[in-house]
């Protein structure tokens, strides 16, 4: 049984072009293979609704479909046969370029199949429109890896164009590539891997762009080109001054703090931050957090009471 194109798109036969376009756009976003990798059902559904929109989304083809149903292509290619006029004359019959699906598809997915073909041909897909397309992949990298440099092996899918007997079809293709991530690369920076994007019908492929995303760190917070770290300091050390240990991305370092250091006070450790692309390092900002023990011994409590009394006298 022939499939009803209107039913496939979920519109009535009286629907206008705007409603048909909106229905196609909604379904295209839902079933496109880029959104549903390795989903054969979604891929088949996408092809089915694309074919339906190519017909009823084009005013001329829609007229033929409404008149002849599933035989509309024969009516288009052999107009004489459909009216009992004998052999068809293809000389002045122009299928026209473009087509309704082209603009929607390119708008949604940045390129794709351009429908329509040459004069009198049986191929309704214009292979020249199946151009290579770039692809972006976001890779999350830890601050330790940013500091030292690292590598990633990416396995991903592209929609590559392949010639078939009646035109061009896009097929999900699994690709694998190793990407070198240099030390000091900034957050949001893109690395270009040539020829690893979506392939066109001519065999050439677009590029893969790897977008670097700095992962959230449990200790360190990026502040411009520098890092900030919160350092717990006992209240006695903050009051009397002394040495504390400050963590870095590589190891802990010793830092002196003066007596009377306040909670929230920040000290700069030059060159102890994260690596930059120019092979230098940013600074590490050590933010002091004064800590108070949850439990104190009786001796400690007594000393604190004496200190409190002394503060009252000197106030």
Describe the protein's architecture and organization:
This protein folds into three domains: 1-129, DnaJ domain (Helix Hairpins); 131-216, Sandwich (HSP40/DNAj peptide-binding domain); 220-314, Urease metallochaperone UreE, N-terminal domain (HSP40/DNAj peptide-binding domain, Sandwich), CATH 2.60.260. It is elongated. The chain is built from ten helices and 13 strands. The strands form five sheets. It has a four-stranded mixed β-sheet. It is α+β, with helices and mostly antiparallel strands and 315 residues long. 30% of the residues lie in helices and 28% in strands. Strand 10 and strand 11 form a beta hairpin.
Question: How are the SSEs ordered, and which strands pair?
Answer:
Elements: H1 5-9, H2 17-31, H3 40-56, H4 59-68, H5 72-77, H6 79-82, H7 100-109, E1 114-115, E2 125-126, E3 135-141, H8 143-148, E4 150-164, E5 167-181, E6 190-193, E7 208-214, E8 220-223, E9 226-234, H9 235-240, E10 242-247, E11 252-257, E12 266-269, E13 284-291, H10 298-314
Helix pairs in contact: 2-3
């Amino acid at each position: 049984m022939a499939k009803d194109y209107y039913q496939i798109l979920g519109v009535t036969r009286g629907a206008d072009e705007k409603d048909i376009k909106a229905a196609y756009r909604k379904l295209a976003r839902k079933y496109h293979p880029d959104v549903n990798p390795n989903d054969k059902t979604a891929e088949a559904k996408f092809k089915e609704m694309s074919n339906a929109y190519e017909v009823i989304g084009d005013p001329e083809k829609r007229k033929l479909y409404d008149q002849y149903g599933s035989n509309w292509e024969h009516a288009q290619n052999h107009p004489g046969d459909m009216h009992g006029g004998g052999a068809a004359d293809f000389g002045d019959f122009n299928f026209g370029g473009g087509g309704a699906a082209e603009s929607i598809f390119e708008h949604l997915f940045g390129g794709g199949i351009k429908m329509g073909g040459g004069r009198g041909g049986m191929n309704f897909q214009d292979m020249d429109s199946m151009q290579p397309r770039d692809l972006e992949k976001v890779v999350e990298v830890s601050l330790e890896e940013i500091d030292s440099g690292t590598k990633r092996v990416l396995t991903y899918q592209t929609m590559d164009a392949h010639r078939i007997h009646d035109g061009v079809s896009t097929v999900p293709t699994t690709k694998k590539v190793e990407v070198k991530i240099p030390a000091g690369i900034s957050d949001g920076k893109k690395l270009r891997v040539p020829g690893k994007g979506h392939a066109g019908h001519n065999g050439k492929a677009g590029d893969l762009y790897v977008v670097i995303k700095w992962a959230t760190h449990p200790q360190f917070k990026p502040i411009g080109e520098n890092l900030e770290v919160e350092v717990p300091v006992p209240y006695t050390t903050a009051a009397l001054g002394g040495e504390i240990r400050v963590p870095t991305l590589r190891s802990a370092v010793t830092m002196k703090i003066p007596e009377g250091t306040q909670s929230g006070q920040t000290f700069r450790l030059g060159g102890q931050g994260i690596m930059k692309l120019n092979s230098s390092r940013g600074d590490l900002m050590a933010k002091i957090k004064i800590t108070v023990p949850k439990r104190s011994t009786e001796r400690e409590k007594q000393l604190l009471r004496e200190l409190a009394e002394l503060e009252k006298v000197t106030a």
